[in-house]
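User: I'm new to structure prediction. If I give you an amino acid sequence, what do you actually give back? Let's try with this one:
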Amino acid sequence: MQGMVDMSYPPQVYSGDSGEISAHFRSADAAPDFGTHDEGGIHYLATTVTTRGEFGLYRVEMRENAGGPKTHFHRCISESFFILDGTVRLFNGAEWIDAHSGDFLYVPQGGLHAFRNDSDAPAQMLLLFTPGAPREEYFENLSQLAGYTDEERARFLVKHDSYFVE
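Assistant: Good question. You get back a string of structure tokens that encode the predicted 3D arrangement of the chain. For your 166 residues, that looks like this:
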């Protein structure tokens, strides 16, 4: 097909002959790993540790009128958004889009983006980072940024591949 890139499978990771029992299951009713259902929580579905750095997958519960991060980009990781429930405003670098259940946005490395819940109802979405990165520390310490010095804040954001433009 015209325009297709010839891709191959990545290098072999598993070399056994019979497979192994190594799957990870998480129940839909599990409590958030960070935050709460009422205030907005994050479920660590597949961390970079679990996936050996292949990807990170998180379910984000946003309370009504939760707002969200300002426009930013990542140098090392791509970020994808899949809306599960409610309305999430997604910025694709050019315009804001009111995204609803089933809507998807992929942002490659360097792509400007942002997201917000400005509605009067809660919303849920999946966030996928590739390759995997230790985003748990970022999520868990983000609320402390206001107390950081400018130097500490800059170091934290660079460590977590987050470059804000507004």
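You can read the tokens as a compact description of the fold. Here is one thing that stands out. The chain has a mean pLDDT of 93.
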